[in-house]
Every structure is written in structure tokens, then in C-alpha cells.
Amino acid sequence: MTDTRRRVKVYTLNEDRQWDDRGTGHVSSAYVERLKGMSLLVRAESDGSLLLESKINPNTAYQKQQDTLIVWSEAENYDLALSFQEKAGCDEIWEKICQGKDPSVDITQELIDESEEERFDDMSSPGLELPPCELSRLEEVAELVASSLPSPLRREKLALALENEGYIRKLLELFRVCEDLENREGLHHLYDIIKGIFLLNRTALFEVMFSEECIMDVIGCLEFDPSLPQPRRHREFLTTTARFKEVIPISDPELRQKIHQTYRVQYIQDMVLPTPSVFEENMLSTLHSFIFFNKVEIVGMLQDDEKFLTELFAQLTDEATDDDKRHELVNFLKEFCAFSQTLQPQNRDAFFKTLSNMGILPALEVILGMDDVQVRGAATDIFSYLVEYNPSMVREFVMQESQQNDDDILLINLIIEHMICDTDPELGGAVQLMGLLRTLVDPENMLATANKTEKTEFLSFFYKHCMHVLSAPLLANTTEEKPSKDDFQTCQLLALIVELLTFCVEHHTYHIKNYIINKDILRRVLVLTASQHAFLALCALRFMRKIIGLKDEFYNRYIMRNFLFEPVVKAFLNNGSRYNLINSAIIEMFEYVRVEDVKSLTAHIIENYWKALEDVDYVQTFKGLKLRYEQQRERQDNPKLDSMRSILRNHRFRRDARTLEDEEEMWFNTDEEDLEDGEAVVPPSDKMKSDEDLMDPISKFMERKKLKDSEEKEVLTGKASLSGRQSPSFKLSFSSSPKPSLSSPPTASLHPGSPGSPSSPGTGARSSPPTAAVTTKGGLVGLVDYPDDDEEDEDEEDADSKEESPPLSKKSKLSS
């Protein structure tokens, strides 16, 4: 029995002024040594963990509301509430909180401190005396209420006086008199009085004002705003325009009354009361709480009424139900789901599980098949609640459904068809439905089990049963070189479809790849680049860019085989010199291919579209692509040269990481300096260049190094440190044979210090720097890796060397 009485829910008020459920447990009060005082303790009923530990502070304002709620503030922006299952338990804890004070009051103390003088004045007077509730004294009452609002203690005394004397009911009787007499001045005073009572923020007063017999008169008082020339007609709207419809009869009178009350209080908050100022906003926090807890109660009572929900879903799916009735049922269900958003996560879980068990998804399928646009719209909103709550539940339903029904009547296909057939010129409904589809096909929220993943099962289902329905408008509109329909609404729809396909390319693997290649989807999408609507052309470019960005050779071969860069190049040329998004998007696509060095696409673009693009010089993208292509061809035609350059760049000069960049720069600069005027290192346009021309810069480089070193130090040919070395890992030889031959005897060798030899960097001691030898003038001379200081002298020496060494003018050979 004690457990039931002390069973509570713990709530905290978040930044949006909404109550968050922190859990259910059992409350007790005990002395806590750490807090040095009596404290409220709430332990979770699930695992006994501590949900709340709050010291009872005599200076904190605790409020008791609706007989089962205790609300207080722990800090400036941290409000707490305990919601009791039974009134008896609430009363017990309230007595503990009051700690000897009168437990009949609904508030222990206000938070805001007042000046000592004001407190002394209030303490000397036992209570606030209200003027008699008479017509002639209304102005005096209004002034008293207005003067009490700034002072927390005076507000408390005013609230107690209003509550104890039944003053609100007397004021409402005066309102009826003033309205009969058309006493406009008295009505204006009553408006100010009632508005002030709202700002007192007291649950006990709200319960009187929102009772069945008083609430309409309270609304009537608030119609006569002194700042308006004519009174509002809120009561007329609530009694004639707004009508309560019981689509399913509600047998519980308490539930019916709670629904009426909540609707009217919500109306007061949203429509009747003036928008609160910054200073008044927190004064209506109790009104927000009143509505919130009412909604929680309503959802709980309806959810527990199994007869009600069973009847609701039975009528929704019954073919005999007329359209008007079904329309009302769907709107009720939509409102019911909207109310559920006030629930906390665990309560919302139970709510949607109940709806799922009742068959909400089959019911939605029936509703979505109807012709009524409004009913379908409401059903879409309900469907969105379900997808956002638990997409796996929806996926499981549609996969089970596919085993029994044809593709045409599957729930997801109905959603796709409604998206395609949206009559709204702005496609508002289609955008919403596309967002739901994206959530359903997003692998990020799919569950994985021990046996088989939901991702594999659902995506296989989707591509087999649904993808053809989604892509049908795209395929129908792209049979020619231009879109067959290019109006704004069609283009918006196609843009939505292409965006979803782009999402699939990014997040799905072989499913979308197989679909694109088998159905030639990319070629169809690229037809849209010819659309007059730039946003659609950009969607198509984004789709292709996403595919290229995967750097998947299956996609690349598909693009090259079907020449799918052709529509992109056409769109680029048709755009002309205009500097716009299409221009930038296409250039960025080619730039990506260049920067990432996608070799297959680079060769394809240059070989097929270079003539169309060679004149574009305001960006270097296309010339850069051409250079990449020529470098590729160079490496293909001369693999030995490529190997030599790679080795020399990466190892030959890498004595020290600090000098790497300088030495690489020296290598390239040396090549260019030693060439004759107008000669390139490897002329890319001349595919018939001889090996002699290609190796000539290397020969010159090595000779220059030899001569530079000879100025600093002489190396004897018979030195033991060189003659006893093992043969190097590769040799640079010069031969007079017309073609390179691996069997030709070398006449010059790279000796110790070459890559792979024992004294190369990283393997040998730093005291023996790498050296190399070249046979010339009958002697071995060491090469060192320093840039030449006197280039003019070296040029002359190069000329002499050429004259004295005829083999250097012959074809060269690299053997390894």
C-alpha cells in the first residue's frame, strides 16, 4: 500500500519550457549526512538507482498543484516536479516539506527576496483584505491586483485571499451583471482583474477558473480589452464554430470533460491572453504545466481504453464507412498522434507499440488508397510520426506485406505514387514524402542482427519491388536528347527523384550500382542537363559527380563505354562564357578527375573531348588534364625512364630529409638548363622521340656531377673502398646498339651509394656519403649531390665531354 501511495514520476523543466520525464520511482524523505538536512529521495522502481536527491530547503518555494503535483525550483533555471499516483502520497510528502508549517497552504515560500522594510510591513499585517465584491468597488480591486503583482509576498497573500473567500466566483457574477447593463467601464476593470489573476500563476486559482461552470465567463471577461475599440467574440467561436465531435463515443465522462477543458485552456493561452512580455513570460509557467499534464492524462486514458481504440481502427478499415466519417476518424487519429509528442520517450514507445498492435499501418494503407486529398494528407502526417518514431517497424511491415500483395498496392509504392502525383505546384507534400523515403532507405538507422542484417533484406526488397516505381517518371521523361516535359512542376519532381538517387549512390553499394548500370540510369539523368531549369541540370551534375567521387572502376568503365561525358561537355559549351553555378560545377568535376589523377577518365576525356576544350584558358583545369594525360603516355611509352626518374627522385639524392626538396628542384632545373634552345625534356606531343633524346639530359647531368666533384677532390681508380664493393642494384649503361639490350656489357656503373647498396642512406654510416662513378677519360670520378655554382663553366665542360665521349651520343640503356 505504501509503495502505491509513494509512487511518483520525476519531471524537470527544459529550456523550451516543456517537462521532461526523468523516470518513475518511489519517494521518501530522510536525513542525508552529505546535504546536512532532511531531503527528498526518489529511487527508480526498475533498478533502485537514485533518480532524485534534493534537500528540503525552508527558503525554497514549493507548490502543490492539482492535489497530486509538487513543483519547486532547485536553481534559477532548474525546475522540478513530482507527479504522484495517489493524492494520499502527495499529502504525506507535502507535510514533510512544510516541516511544521501549516500544510493546508499550496505554497511554502516565494523565491524572490524582498527588502527588509517590505518584509517587515507584510509580517506586521496578518493578511490582505480585499474590498467587497461590488460594482462600485471594481476599480479599487483592479488597482489592488495591479499593485500586488510586483511583490512576491503580496502576490501570495492576494492569491490566498482570492482562494479563501471564493472571490473569483463573485467577480464572475459581477461580470454577468455588467454585461447585461452594458457597463463598459466595469467590463474593462474586470478584464484587468482577471488578467492579473492569471499572472499570479497559482494552480488552485486555475482549477476554479477552468471549471466547467466558470471557464466561459473567464473567457468573456477577457473579451473586453480596454485597448480595443470593439470586444472580441471568443465565446461565440467556442460555442458555435468550434464543435466537439465524438467520432467514437467516449463513455468516460471524466475523459470527455478533460478534453473540453484542455481545448479551451489551450485556446485561452494561444488566442485570448495577450502575448506576455519578457517580464511576464515566466508568470504563466503554471498555465503551461496545467495544459501539459492534461494532455498526458488524456493520452493515457485513451490508450488504456482498448474498446475505444479497437472501434476506431475497425471503422477506419471498414469499407462500409462513409468518406465523411473516415475523414473525421483520420483527423482524430492525427490529433491523437500530435498529443503523443508531449509524452516522454518511454511513454511514447508504449503509445506507438499500442497503435502498431492495433493495426495502424494496414489502416494507413487503406486510407492512402482513397481519393480524398485531405484524408491522404492527414494519413501522410500520421505516417511521418511513425517513420520518425521507429522506421524499422515500418520496414518490417512492408517486407512482410510484399509476400502477400502485388507491388502496386505496397505501402511504400503508395507513398511514391502520392509523391509523383502531388498536385501542389510547389510539391510540398512530395518533399515531405521524399524525406520519409530517405529515412526508410537510410542504412544509418537500420538494425543488424546475428543472422542477417536489416540493411541487406530491406534494400534487396526496395530495389526489387519499389525502385522501378520511383524511377518511372525519370525514365519516361528522358527518352530523347532533351527532357520531353520541361515545365517547372515536372522538373521539381525529377529533381527530388535524382536527389534521392544521389543519396542512394552515397549510402548503398552494389544495389544501386547494379541498378544504374543495368538500367543505364546515368545516361538518362544526364539528359536533364539540357533542361531550361538550372536547378535540375545541377541535380544531374551532382549525381554524376557523386558517382565519379567514388573512384569505382566499374562506374568509370560504364561512363567511358557509353561516352557519358558528352552531355556534360555539351552543357559546358552551351553555357558559353557565363560564369554561373553550372560552369563552376562542371569545371569542378573535371578538376576532381585531374587532382585525384583518375587515369582512365583522364585518358578518355582528352582522347575524345580535347578539341572541344583546348581553347578554355581562363582556368588551367583542361590544360592540366592534358598534361596528366601526356605524363601517362610518357610513362607507358618509356617505362624504363619512368623507373629511373622515380628512383633518382626518391632515393638517389635522399641523403637527408632536410635537403630533399632542394635536390628535387635541382634535378628538374638542371634538365631544363642543359637543354638546347626550344628542346623539351620529353616532348609529349612527339610520340616518336628516340631513346637517345630521352636519356640525353640524364647523361649530361651525370657528367656535370662528375666534373664538379673533380674540382673538389680526386678519387683514385684503384682505391680499395671502391674496388672491393659488390655490384650495385642497377646500372646505367651506354651502348651503340639501336635498341636497349639487357645483355649488353655495361661501360659505366653506379657504384656504392646507389639505392640498395650497403652505403646508401638509411643503411650505411653518414660518414661515407653516396658516390657514383662514370667511365670517362679513362678514370673513375666520384659524384656528389650539390647544385652547381658556376653553370657557365659546366656548360663548356659539358661540350668538351661530349666531344671526347662519343658513346654518350648513342642510344642509352637502363638495365636492372
Explain what you see.
Helix content is 56%, strand content 7%. It is of the alpha+beta class. It has a seven-stranded antiparallel sheet. Strands 8-9 form a two-stranded antiparallel ribbon. The C terminus is likely disordered.
Sequence-ordered SSE layout with sheet pairings:
Blueprint: H1 2-5, E1 7-13, E2 19-32, E3 37-44, E4 50-55, E5 63-65, E6 69-75, E7 78-84, H2 87-98, H3 116-124, H4 138-148, H5 152-164, H6 167-181, H7 184-199, H8 203-209, H9 215-221, H10 234-241, H11 253-272, H12 285-304, H13 306-317, H14 323-340, H15 345-358, H16 360-368, H17 373-389, H18 391-402, H19 411-420, H20 428-440, H21 454-465, H22 467-477, H23 488-507, H24 510-519, H25 521-526, H26 534-549, H27 553-561, H28 566-575, H29 581-595, H30 599-613, H31 621-637, H32 639-652, H33 660-674, H34 691-712, H35 720-723, E8 731-734, H36 791-804, E9 812-815
Antiparallel strand pairs: 1-2, 1-7, 2-3, 3-4, 5-6, 6-7, 8-9
Helix pairs in contact: 4-7, 6-7, 11-12, 14-17, 16-17, 16-19, 17-18, 17-20, 18-21, 19-20, 20-23, 22-23, 23-26, 26-29, 28-29, 29-31, 30-31, 31-32, 33-34, 34-36
